[in-house]
Amino acid sequence: MSPKTIVHLVDDTTAGGVMRMLDFIETNPEMARLGSHRVQVVARGRLAAPQLDEEIIVSHLSVSWRNLPMLVGLRARYADRTLIHVEHSYTGAFTGLKVRHRTRFFALLRTAYSLFDRVIAVSEGQGRWLAERGLVREEALAVIPSCVDLAPFLALPGRYGAPRIIGAIGRFDEQKGFDTLIRAFRETADPDLRLRLIGEGADRAALEELASGDSRISFHGYSSTPAAEMAKLDMVAMPSRWEAYGLVALEARAAGRALLVAQVDGLQDHIEGGARAVAGGTVEAWREAIETACKTGPALHIGIAWGRISAADVQRTTPELWAKLLNKIAGHHHSRDAA
Predict the structure, then answer these.
(1) SS3 labels along 190-234
(2) What was the pLDDT predicted at 338?
(3) What backbone torsions phi and psi does residue 13 show, to the nearest 5 degrees?
(4) Over the range 53-89, which residues count as b (16 or more CB within 10 Å of their CB) and which as e?
(5) What is the largest CA-CA distance in the chain?
(6) What is the mean pLDDT of the chain?
(7) Other Cβ atoms within 10 Å of 334 Cβ, number
(8) Which residues, in sequence order, are CB contacts of 217 under 8 Å at separation 6+?
(9) What angle do CA 173, 177, 179 make, to 5 degrees?
């Protein structure tokens, strides 16, 4: 496959998973072999499609009724181009918790996704939901996990002793479930355990109030050097209520840290990669999971070691999956043109 020109459209440049994934796409040597990548910011809710010269247009845009006219315009204006959408947000757990009018919501998703030649799910868990709900045509659906540069995490010495410092990394909001984690941690009895919450968000004051009185719990702001923060931790906890994939989980695996994840959406992918599942999402379930994990043993060590190996494999296979997808699209277009 000859190198392509590829533009990535975004409407949210907040520091987080989407922008870090795009940084990986722009800087990874294997991704560079697929073509030249450019990121273009698009104002959310604009009506007209932007002027674009690239052969392949990749949307990382939010799907909403407000954005739908622009997505329709994008398909109409570039009917001869390849359009791909990467779904970073919507999942089964999100729908169950946050969507009241599901028939209308599913109509929006089916309409929006039908405008694209391919729709990429960022995890197997999310992909199963998209397929089972019939939201994306089977032949149009691909699963490519999100990735970041894992070299700084793979370079860290693994932690194979009994975990004592537990980290929770991400936005301080309802999605991440840090309120449940704080309540669960407060019920643990070991005075030597520590919980570090790393991030920013609207719920910070409420979380600090919830943690008040337990000196073992500390809050730390957003860090532009996540590997340096990971180096301070023995274990990472991710009690998310919904999560399309969970880059923090991938980073924890690469760093050789024990990892506890809620059994939802894309976090389930990390269970096969060495993470320990916490079922139920209750305070009691998380308290028990923390206490059990902190009693280190061979099973924990095996999970940590496998996590490092499998995380490195994700970094290797992500560009391969992109190449496979672009080759398949190129072959389809060639067959169509020949006909």
Answers:
(1) CCCCEEEEECCCCCHHHHHHHHCCCCCEEEECCCCCHHHHHCCCC
(2) 44
(3) -105, 20
(4) ebbbbbbbbbbeeebeebbebbbeeeeebbbbbbbbe
(5) 72
(6) 94
(7) 10
(8) 182, 185, 186, 194, 195, 197, 211
(9) 85
∠ Cα 77 139 105 (to 5°): 70
What are the angstrom distances between the C-alpha of 291 and each of 114, 129, 183, 184? 47, 32, 14, 10
Tell me which residue of 2, 92, 18 sits closest to 62, measured CA to CA: 18
If you write DSSP's letter for every residue of 33-70 in order, what string do you get?
A: HHEEEEEEE--TT-SSPPP---SEEEE-PPP-TTTHHH
- 333 vs 114, more confident: 114
The closest alpha carbon to 218, from 197, 204, 234, 203, belongs to 197
Query: What DSSP line would sit under 243-303, residue for residue?
Result: -SS-HHHHHHHHTT-EEEEESSTTHHHHHTTTPEEE-S--HHHHHHHHHHHTS--HHHHHH
Task: Tell me how far CA of residue 61 lies from CA of 74, 171, 272, 327, in angstroms.
Answer: 12, 20, 29, 23
Cα within 13 Å of Cα(3), Cβ side = 9
From CA 76, how far away is CA 55, in angstroms rounded? 15
Structure-token match 């709900």, residue found: 133
Q: What whole-number distance in Å separates Cα of residue 109 and Cα of residue 40?
A: 23
Find, among 263, 291, 267, 264, the residue nearest to 278 by Cα. Answer: 263
Beta partners for residue 10, in sequence order = 41
Burial of 32 (0-12, 13-18, 19+ CB in 10 A): middle
Structure tokens at 99: 């969507």
**C-alpha–C-alpha distance, residues 338 and 214, integer Å:** 69
pLDDT tens digits for range 46-57 = 889 999 999 999
Write down all domains in the chain, each with its CATH number in brackets: 4-143 (3.40.50.2000), 151-313 (3.40.50.2000)
| pTM over cut 0.90 | yes
Q: How is the chain split among helix, strand and coil, in percent rounded to 5?
A: 45, 15, 40
The answer on pLDDT for 339 being more than 90 is no
